[in-house]
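User: Structure please.
Assistant: Input sequence and predicted structure:
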Amino acid sequence: MKDYIEREQAITVFKTFYGKSLRVVLEALEEEHAADVREVVLCRDCKWWRGEGTICKGIGIDFDADGFCCEGERKDGAEMKGEADGT
């Protein structure tokens, strides 16, 4: 699983160690606690998605296109939001 830290944590580290060597900044970032997060897949990007009003074949619940779960599997060619457009 990937480790993530909150943006504010990273900004604080950079402000605290501004002017120090890159090595010092990287060491400080590595010491930060990772956020407790899990990657999710939007229903419309999931290989199990069959459209609105259908039951998800992956977990057996009906979601809309903007729904998500942590059990989803990204279909071939689907990008995570932000990968292509930088958001």
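The chain is about 25% helix and 5% strand.
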